[in-house]
Amino acid sequence: MEYLTSVLQIDVLFPWLMAMFLGIFVGGIPGLTATMAVALIVPITYHMQPIAGLAMILGVSFTAIFAGDIPATFLRIPGTPASGAAILDGYEMTKQGRGPMAIALDLSCSAIGGVIGILILMTIAPFLAEFALTFTHFEYFWLGTLGLSMSAIITRGSTLKGLIATVIGVLISTIGVDITTGYPRFAFGNENLMGGIGFIPVMIGLFGLSEVFRSIISPENMKTPSITENISITFRSVGKILLKSKRLILQSSIIGNLVGALPGAGADMAAWIAYGIGKKTSKHPEKFGTGYEEGVIAPTSANNASLGGTWIPALVFGIPGDTITAILLGAMMMYGLTPGPLVFEQERFLVNQIFTVGLISQVFLLIIGALGIKAYRIILRFPRNIVLAAVLVFSIIGSYALANNLFDVGIVLVFGLVGFFMEKADMPLPPVILGLILGPMIEENLRIGLIKTDGAFGEFFTRPISFTLFLILMLLFFYDPAKKLIGKLFSQKSRSTE
């Protein structure tokens, strides 16, 4: 009770709520990330008491991660990298006139996933952090490969086209300075390409601008609103779906938390892995990607749960789980706090305040998120040509704001055309983003691992966690074929006995 009253004081509560409103705004604009929102918050917190500043950072990250799903659901444009998986079924539900249900499920699962993530953080943080530290380059290679394998699972239609899209993403990720030799690759003497191509401009182009181009050549619906439905969503209707999917929510939240606890993994990888495993373990995997509620529940439960996971190595060992917690660690040191194993003893009161803020933020997320959805739905009732013009403007502003570089705007335009022609060829777009995000992680850990072992692959398979991840990968790929084969063998055997 003492922790509750201390965080609900007006000098903590007011900036905390204002930060969460900022998170809704930033997360909903393509190109402006949760990391950017946190970076904007930190200078404001300099003269505040530590818990007020940390409440602002926590609050803005939770709402920004959720808000990225709003344009992903209604416009097929992920607001943040963690929202990439939300387009698969969320946008399909919008096309079917069930957008309000999709975003209501999204908001509910974001809050539930956040609660589960914080509860796991409170109960088993030291154990999970110790487990995360056992990961070396060998384990991270298999984790990245496991994430990349999700492209085969999430692809609808031709698996070959999905594989080609993934390879395109991985190839794009190789542009820039070679991580081992320091030699430029595929930069063609252009200094803007030396640092590689960022996945945020690519994502904005593939999903945002390609939608604008597609609408321009089909102008018959340009005068109609982006969303026309006004379906009333009740707590009972949402609650029934959540109750039916309680296993998936728990499963995805745990996956999100575990992935978040691994330094460098982040909410975007957590969402894709949770979606892929959710599809594999579903009774109706064929419905994923067609506007299926479980396809919305799995990634959105995972991405907010992962935020609790990123705090585990940050608090226990002072190792940032992602860019948000990297900024957070800097802020904690600014307040004179030293993250590490002793923080639970020396700053126990503050740690419990952080846990309390994390849990209460999920309640605020439901309220502020609902207000954010209403605001966006009002905007989306404007004619589609006005909305798409705004998307174009914000896409350009968002991509430029990343590094104040016009070259990124050019990247958005180029990949807008690439996305347009890929969809014309019936090639899926999400695997490109997956390949672009995970390509550097896989390459870096493979090459460093091989340098450590003088080119031998043995340790990639003999280490216990590496071998376990390898087995999971094999299980994902060969479970269905093996199941069909065994079924055929048994049916043939039963026929022969007859």
| Portion in helices | over 70%
Radius of gyration over C-alpha positions, nearest whole angstrom:
23 Å
How far apart lie the N and C ends?
71 Å
Report the order of strands and helices: HHHHHHHHHEEHHHHHHHHHHHHH
Structural class based on helices, strands and sheet pairing: mainly alpha
Low-confidence spans: none
How are the strands ordered across the major sheet?
1-2
User: What is the residue-mean pLDDT, rounded to a whole number?
Assistant: 79
Find the count of extended strands (DSSP E, 2+ residues). 2
Beta-strand content: under 5%
Largest sheet: 2 strands, antiparallel
SS field, number of helical segments: 22
Overall, the morphology is globular
Would you kindly provide a written description of the structure presented here, covering whatever features stand out?
- This protein has 498 residues and is mainly α.
- The chain has a domain at 2-141 and 197-279 and 288-403.
- The protein is built from 22 helices and two strands.
- A two-stranded antiparallel sheet has the order 1-2.
- Helix 4 (50-67) runs antiparallel to helix 15 (323-334) and helix 12 (246-260) runs parallel beside helix 14.
- The longest helix is centred in the N-terminal third of the chain and has 35 residues, at 99-133.
- The chain is globular.
- The N and C termini lie far apart (71 Å).
